[in-house]
Amino acid sequence: MNKGNYVSAVDALDRWRDDVLTGKPPTLYPLGSGELGRIEVGPGLVTLIGGAPGAGKTAFTMQCVVDAIRLSPELRALVCNIEMSPAVLLDRQLARLSGVDLTTIRYRRIGAEHANRIDQGINTLAAVADRLCFLRPPFNLGNVAATADDFGANLILLDYIQRIAPPGEHDNRRSSVDATMDYLRQFADAGVAVVVVSAVSRAKDAKGRSSYSGEGLNLASFRESSELEFGADDAFIIHPDDDDAEGELVKLKHLKSRHGECRDLSLRFDRRRQTFTVDAEPAGTVGTADRSKLTSALAALWDRTPAATEGGDNE
After folding, report:
1. Spatial CA neighbour of 256 closest among 43, 17, 84, 46
2. Does this model's pTM top 0.70?
3. Nearest to residue 165, comparing CAs of 181, 152, 149?
């Protein structure tokens, strides 16, 4: 007769009590200052980011990963991006870190007026390059796992999940995505932080029109969603702010939080420089005498990048 597989409440309580009384919080990798610092990415967690085509999913998640590496010296990250080469991704990061617009960088129109900012941006990337790697084909979970092990990655970014094949044969796309998410949960349970980018489906707005309008997006909007919505610890969707005529404001809609409360963020997306900033930081979070260690650390990093204060492109 088979015996059940369980842990008694007495044993669970003892381990849990010891853990609580240590006073040691969970390990989380900071992604930025202020409100961005609330997004939880860390060992054992799967963080899901969705959005419509062109919403800025890749720009946002790459910004988070690069800044996390800059702020956490022990962090090593593996990026699996199906659609963009490492050179394209680095172009975008250079635009963000230097303040020189992406068009100038993409078409290699860099002049003397950009030299200092470009040097600073390249140096910033060079300082973390030994802790960042990019997956080469094949884009499947077997290669992801082998590469993460070989590189010693403790953070994995998968962009995007609908295109990353799990082991085995699967009847359809939904069952394939479900299997991929199940494996990613196992990656997280093994102590890795996992950030997953997902496509979303159109939703009906208040007038019955099919669109990517934020008011209709929810957990069911993640394409081939079933296991995605259950497997993620936190789930967000990026979408344009419907009330912003200029098209720079976006909402980071917090749809699920397994360990806390859901709180949406209002962000500003500078597409020319591929940079996300919080649109309205709470008073006192930046530039005050009582800065947190995180804010101070990030400010110190940016102080070494002149473009952060100069702004600008080739005006």
Report:
1. 46
2. yes
3. 181
